[in-house]
Amino acid sequence: MDRALxxxxxxxxxxxxxxxxxxxxxxxxxxxxxRPGYLWAAHYASVGEDRIPRRSSGNKYTTTDPEVPTGDRYxxxxxxxxxxVFGDPLPSEWHATLPAADQKMLAVRIGERVNIMSEAARVExxxxxxxTAGMALAPCIQMGTFQAKWQDEFEALKWYAQWRxxxxxRLDGCIRARKLASVAGWAKSSILYExxxxxxxxxxxxxxEDGNPNREWSDKVVASLTHAPGSAxxxxxxxxxxx
Length: 243
Description:
With 243 residues, this protein is an alpha+beta fold. 29% of the residues lie in helices and 32% in strands.
């Protein structure tokens, strides 16, 4: 199973973007997938806020730590059986062995932020039975990445275990939801939702949140978290192409 993820968030400059994406999708990712233990890769472009109906985020806090890189427009995820696959060698060590031309392309990234995470829990949504792509990540994801004071982590665990993740097993449009714990990187935790499409996410998740009988509890948990820049990201898959 794909119980570990190497996740990279970053931005790109306007100039040279097409060249970079052609290299990433046509050269870098096919080579990456030939490495031992790498099970799959998926590349996403974050969706602008104008395309995402959300509840008010007045109680959501985003870190202002200047040491935390702020890239979030692109998200690259790689799956493996466990986190040791990404520790021997580290992604940065592998990158250092690449040809100079490849390293030049990697240097185009702006505000790059990396986490290695292990899966702590997983549930399947109603669409899992119709999903034929196996481990491959869905056409649309929503990914929250955050920290919390240790005193608040128990309540967040309870909320995800007793309310949020069970609700995803009944949410139309949902394929899977994964709760992730960090092995390395700024964010200590993450929640990764997989949807059949952006339209499905926008319609069904918004309906779920509007009808949430635990609204007060949910708001309390959200207010206790400190999110990474851009979190929670909603993004559409751009590689492999969505059929």
